[in-house]
Write a structure and sequence with these properties.
about 230 residues, mainly alpha, 13 helices, about 0% strand, elongated
């Protein structure tokens, strides 16, 4: 059990760090950082990770990396927070360098890079990393964020072969009924010139939302100029 005054301090600094994130207040983050070092509370992984996240959300690359480097006992969250920041800002050399050095990766580590590649148009890199994730021996469980990002990359590459492979993986891991993923598949098959496969995914969906219908309508409109016979399901 921690002494009450220590618990109180952790709660206080946690609140201040949250304010740094929501208000994007870099000066406050610097002040909190200084106080944490003086009180040795910077070595608390929870607070240090929050500070790394705060600097990242404020776009302060140098400060975020310094806070990361100064933390002696880095957790998986420490690594993932910085990898996510670098991936979102397109600093993939730095993101990959951290990723390669990371002692133990999890699905968040992969998702950060894969989604970053997709967002910045590096679609082949996205698919390549997805395959590496599949071939690894760490037994990672894929989630909808992984698959939706890779489906988007396959669509942008107009590579229906890769898309069908990813779809197959989704079936194997039990994600075939995920509405968000199915909406992405409908859109991707349409962009790859396979409206009938879009229709097939749509028809097998146990529940549909507005995006499902919009994706199907968009696919039909896209292919009409190519004289495909797409039958809209009711």
């Amino acid at each position: 059990m921690l002494p009450n005054d220590v618990v109180s301090s952790v709660e206080k600094y946690s609140f201040l760090i949250s304010k740094c994130v929501t208000a994007r207040r870099v000066k406050l983050a610097n002040a909190v950082h200084g106080h944490l070092i003086k009180t040795a509370l910077f070595f608390d992984a929870f607070l240090a990770n929050g500070l790394i996240d705060a600097y990242s959300k404020c776009g302060c690359e140098e400060s975020a990396h310094k806070a990361f480097d100064d933390l002696p006992n880095k957790t998986t969250r420490s690594w993932n927070t910085l990898i996510s920041f670098y991936s979102k800002t397109g600093l993939f050399d730095k993101a990959h360098n951290l990723f390669d050095k990371m002692p133990q990766r999890n699905v968040v580590s992969y998702n950060s890079l894969i989604s970053g590649f997709t967002r910045h148009g590096l679609h082949e890199d996205s698919v390549k990393l997805f395959r590496a994730m599949q071939n690894g021996r760490n037994g990672l469980v894929l989630d909808e964020f992984t698959l939706v990002s890779v489906v988007g990359s396959c669509a942008c590459l107009c590579n229906v072969k890769w898309l069908r492979q990813v779809h197959g993986v989704a079936v194997i891991v039990g994600m075939v009924w995920n509405v968000i993923l199915n909406n992405a598949l409908i859109d991707a098959y349409g962009k790859c010139g396979e409206p009938n496969l879009s229709c097939s995914v749509f028809c097998w969906m146990p529940e549909r939302d507005v995006v499902s219908w919009t994706s199907m309508v968009t696919t039909a409109a896209l292919m009409r100029s190519l004289s495909h016979n797409v039958i809209m399901p009711l």
